VOC family protein
Amino acid sequence: MNAPVLKTGHVGLNVTDLTRSIAFYRQVFGFDVLGEQAEGDRRFAFLGRDGGLMVTLWQQSDGGFAADRPGLHHLAFQVPDIEAVRRAEATLRDLGVPLVYDGVVPHGEGASSGGVFFTDPDGIRLEIYAPTGADTAPAPTQGAPTCGFF
């Protein structure tokens, strides 16, 4: 049997405050709201770019992201180059979003790929990275990928 060609379609995230999360994801990632239901008991939003759905937000959670539970580890977005990562870093700093590491870092010792690591308002771990150009800083973790244990 031949397996079909697969491509990630979109990622759905549970959030505690839909309005706050929509604002965050729009400011940081430049997403458009493709659809939403902002009233009632079933609040959600569809976010993307150029009409393509990338992230769905579902307001149905209490508390914060539990890194010690099975499930989503982190969500990473690739950008074309390290300059785009640095622009994202500047946006995050302007918004007062704490970075996990001090700025742009490589994915590991000797790796050229890398980016910035941070969390959304609910503590969901996020990454914006480029395939090359991050090797100007030392890797912040030894013996494991940078995105593995933050």
